[in-house]
Amino acid sequence: MKKTLIILLVIILSGLIISQIFAMNSRKDIESYPYKVLKKYKNFETRIYEASLFNSVKLPYSNYKESSRKGFSLLANYIFGSNESNEKIAMTSPVMMSLEDSMTMHFLVPKQYSKETLPKPNNNQVELTQVPAKTVAVVSFKGWADDEKIRKYKLKLINHLKEEKIEYQGPFYFLGYNPPFELFNRKNEVMVEIIR
To answer: pTM for the whole thing?
Structure first.
């Protein structure tokens, strides 16, 4: 009985390790929101992001858990083929959410598409959004994101910007880089546009 239990635990642990290695390797090929680092400070950095297209969905929630679940479901359905041409669109990174009373979730549109070539969604809640180039400040944190952590790092970023006398304009955004099944090396960020 004891030997069977040990074998079972080894199999489960091996499966977990293999799935996490696969998750980390699969992220290497994912297209991400292009930016250039302007300056690294002790606790945050400033970046310039390129103008980019996003698929977006506005949600009637102000909490991360509910917004992320519902928003991800709607946008994932669209990129997995729920569109006029039943076309699968590659997943990109990060998933971006505005931190407002009604949150908006954004998936970056892969560079191969333009406004004209992107298939029309079957669900009219999914919209195409053109985000202009912008200069931002970003603070990073590890682990699993939740409302409390996001709020904490948003306040930290506000304080860091005040210390450096950098002006900013809302809204703030949460950026999540990992798929839900990835347990380790989780990367999250809170971002806000700065005035130069």
So the answer is: 0.85
